[in-house]
Every structure is written in C-alpha cells, then in structure tokens.
Specification:
Blueprint lengths: L2 E4 L8 E2 L2 E2 L5 H10 L3 E6 L9 E3 L4 E3 L2 E3 L3 E3 L17 E5 L8 E8 L15 H9 L3 H8 L9 E5 L5 E8 L8 H18 L3 E6 L7 H19 L16 E5 L5 H25 L7 H14 L4 E6 L1 H6 L3 H7 L7 E7 L8 E13 L21 H16 L4 E12 L11 E3 L5 E3 L7 H13 L5 E6 L3 H7 L3 E5 L3 H14 L2 E4 L17 E2 L7 H10 L7 E6 L5 E2 L4 E2 L4 H10 L3
Parallel strand pairs: 1-4, 9-14, 10-12, 10-13, 13-14, 17-18, 17-21, 20-24, 21-25, 22-23
Antiparallel strand pairs: 2-3, 4-5, 5-8, 6-7, 11-12, 15-16, 16-18, 19-20, 22-25, 26-27
Length: about 600
Amino acid sequence: MAASFAIASSSSTAYLGSRFCRYVSPLFFSAFRNKYPPFSFCFAHSPSSFSSSSCSSSLRWQVGSRARMAHSTACAALGLTKPNTIEAPQITFSAKDIDFAEWKGDILALAVSEKDFSKDSNSKFENAILKKLDEKLSGLLAETSSEEDFTGKAGQTVVLRLPGFGFKRVGLIGTGQIKEPTATAYKGIGEAVAAVAKTAQASKVAIVVVSTLEGSSESKLHAAASIAAGTVIGIYEDNRFKSESKKAVLKEVDIVGLGSGSELDKKLKHSVEVSSGVIFGKELVNAPANVLTPGVLSEEAAKVASSYSDVMTATILDVEQCEKLKMGSYLGVAAASANPPHFIHLCYKPPGGNVKRKLAIVGKGLTFDSGGYNIKTGPGCSIELMKFDMGGSAATFGAAKAIAQIKPPGVEVHFIVAACENMISGTGMRPGDIVTASNGKTIEVNNTDAEGRLTLADALVYACNQGVDKIVDLATLTGACVVALGSSVAGIFTPNDELAKEVVEASQRAGEKLWRLPLEESYWESMKSGVADMVNTGGRQGGSITAALFLKQFVDEKVQWLHIDMAGPVWNDKKRAATGFGVSTLVEWVLSNSS
C-alpha cells in the first residue's frame, strides 16, 4: 500500500532566538525516494482558510531569504477535517411592559426563586404574579408544582402544555435563593430559558422575572441585558465539527416587567453585540489545532478588521518582520513548528477620532502547546486540551469584534497576539537555550513548557511601543493558578490599585469572576539566572506569581499593566467546550475608559 509522508516548511526562514534554523537537505529526500519508492511526498505550508490548507508535490527550498515553490496540487488538511458553516443565533429581543397573562407566543417562562414559591395557609401563592397566573389557570400551577416537587431551586424546570390559551406552554425556571441580583444570576435565567426553548423547539418566548426587583432603573437595565446575553449564549451550539445537528428555531424573546423604551432597547442591542464576541471567542477555542493554526487565527482576526473597516485595521507580521523587531523570545517558541508564527495586531480607532485614552489588550496565542522538549506527559497533563492555550487570544479577538460593533468614543484600543505553536523538532528551542527578547533582556529557558510567557514578553514590549496608557494581558498561563482558584475564577496581578479596581468592577458587570493575587517581589529571587538576565520558570511554589513577575519585566514602568491568568475558567469540563471567558470583562473595561 502506498503511504504518504508529509513534511511542512514555513513561508520564510525559521529562527531560534536570533539564529537561522537550517532546512533539511534536499539530498535526504532524493535518497529517501530511491530507497522507499511507495512513499509520496507532500510539503504543506500555512493554511489559506479556516477549513483547508494547501501543499505542493515538490520540494520547497531557499532562494535568497524567501522560499520558491514549483507546481502545486491540492492536498487535504490533516484528518480531512472541514468545519461546517453554522449561523450564529438571530434573535430579536424586546422589552415590554404588558400584562404577561395576555401575552401570546410559544412559551411564557417564569423565573422563580424559592422565596417566590411560598404559599399561604390556603395553599395559595403569596407572590402576586404567580397568584394571578394560577387563578387564570384554575389552580393548575400550584397543583403541578406540588406533583412535580418544584420548589424554585436552582436547576429545576417544569414545562406545562396549555391548549386554549394565548401561550402554548408555561415554563417554571428555578433560580434558587438569589441573595443579591448579579449578572451571573440573570445570565443563568437566560441560559435556562434557552434550554427549555430548544427542547420545545419554540420560536417565540417571553421571560418574566417573578421576584420584585428593587433599586434603580439602571439595575433593571443590567438585569434585562444579562438575561438576553444568557439566552443568546444558551441557545448557541457549536456544531461545526458534528455530522448532524439540530438548528435552533428561537427567533423572538420578549422580556416582560423590567421596563421598556429606547434606553433599554439600546442596552439589549449592546448585549447581543457582546454575545457575538463571546461566541466568536468560544468558536476559536473550540476549533482543533489541525484546523486553527497560527495562520488561520491571523486570517480570522483579519476578517474582523475587514468586516468593520470603518473603525478597525489589521497588521500581520511574518517571521522576517518579527526578526527585524528582535522578537527572539517569541520566535524561539515558534521555531519547532511546521506552521509559521503570525504576529497579529488589530487597532480600533473611534469614529471621528478625538482619542483621549489608548489601551492595549494582549492575548496569549498558542494554538497548540505540546510542551516542547519538556513535553506534557502523564495523568493530568491535559495535552489533548492544549488547543485552548490560545484562550487569551480568543478573548482578545472576541472583544475586538464586540468593540467594533459598539464603537465606543474617545478610546483607541490595540488588540495584540503573538500566535504560534509550541512543538518538537530538530529546529526547536531546547532546555538551557538563551533567547533575547525585543527589549534586549536575555532569558535562559529552563523549561520549554513555560512558553506562553516567552511569547507574551515580546507582545508586551510591542504593546508598550504603541504609546498606550494601560495594558491588560490574558493568558492560560499556569496550572498553579488553577490549583489556587479552581476552574471558575481567574487570577489577576497588577502593581496598580486603580487599574485593579477598574478591571474587577468590569468583571462584576460582566458576570465573570476575578480574584487579585499578590505580586510578591521577593519571589523574583527564584527567577534569577547565572548566565542570563533571568530564567523563564522559578520553583513549584508560587508559580502563578513568579509567572506574573516575569511578564512585569517587559512592561514599561510608565504604563499601567494588569495580567489575567485564565487557565481555570477558559474551559468547561462538564460541557467539554470553551466558555468564552474574558470577552465580556474586556468590553466592559474598554467602555469604562470611553468618554
């Protein structure tokens, strides 16, 4: 049986630090063909689209500093995997002040807490909304809830089919004991309603929050927006890589009882725009590494810029351009991979100019991390999940897509990702090598599996050179942070209290959890090298802190900087899928800096 032997070459000379990496001699291939005639050769290079790659049937070798290629033939991507095209949810949200009992549609969904379900001595609901609806249904609500043992606990749902009414079904959505209304709680309501709507194949749904909302109209705005966001995220399913999938039919959602008017409509529109960024981020993380290479990630980012070209531009740097900028730390990580690195820079400028503040968001972009020569092995290494090591870049570009739609005034935002793979080959970075970052600092690589910080080092230097006032970087950086904070909370590190306050408040509005950890300067002792300026890893203790201290070496002291270690919340183990974490927080942070 004839076999196929594929060897990939980059579009330009690969570098390790500041050194050339040699290509394998063409004489090897000639000898190999003579000895093993059944083998055919395919030389693949960077994929040209999200779903396919190209290759040539003859060797690609160096002529000067650029490669020349002979005639080419089509060659399928690894595994023959081609993602299906799926439509993002197209849902129209409306905020209405109407009599919910007269509403017409498929499902009238009531979000009820345990407190809402309390009854008087006559087994009648004390809550006015439930009491009114139960009377309309001739006591069916109370009777069914007792039979189904529905008490309003979180996760409980009951759906009743009701012939003869304007609404075909009534859904009871348990919210548990909500001690204080938060974005997370209201997003949960939207997600639960979406699940019910998918099961019932409903196209029109109304959502009523039974608990009386106390406080300002602003709190009702945020509640409605969070419910809308939860509904969009909940209804969406990433079926691009499944042979069969159901298409969601939900098209209309009325949010009843939280007010109405143009301001609320604008808030709902904003929520949908942010959700589109979250979905984009989830899709990027979910895509396998044989589909989402560094080149494809750059193309997806460039599509965002071209789709919103009135406010967004894209700059993609190749290997040679990065070498001219002396990005030896980043290129050292990329050197082992057949897929060349792509340094990606999107820039948002507000309509009409008048920029009062410049921000940068820097995301880690390892589209796959094998660990390099310090390869990930053994139970718990999670090498099969290392496609999510670009979760920081997914959040970055998801936020870029949302910001381009919202168009906040007075703020310029740079979205920066040093995209590459951390692989193993004869051209790769070895333990003990010394690489030189673009700010001139030298790094002794004592662990090739601490590669993300090496790519971020040059990305942070580049961000500072854009003249920004503040930088937030996001990275799936350390397992130590997961051990410390678990899978739901990201750690943040910054020497600036004001910036920490900004970002934490943004995360609270977004419904994402952050926890500030210390930048303990005394721990830097473990990062000192005998032969270079620093090593790239310290000891086992305080690993997330020493990683943050490492990044700090590449940030200008005049620039406010905050690091988010999102290794825990980037992935949902139960759903085996990406969460889209970070997008909403980044958008809220940018808006808080907008005039």
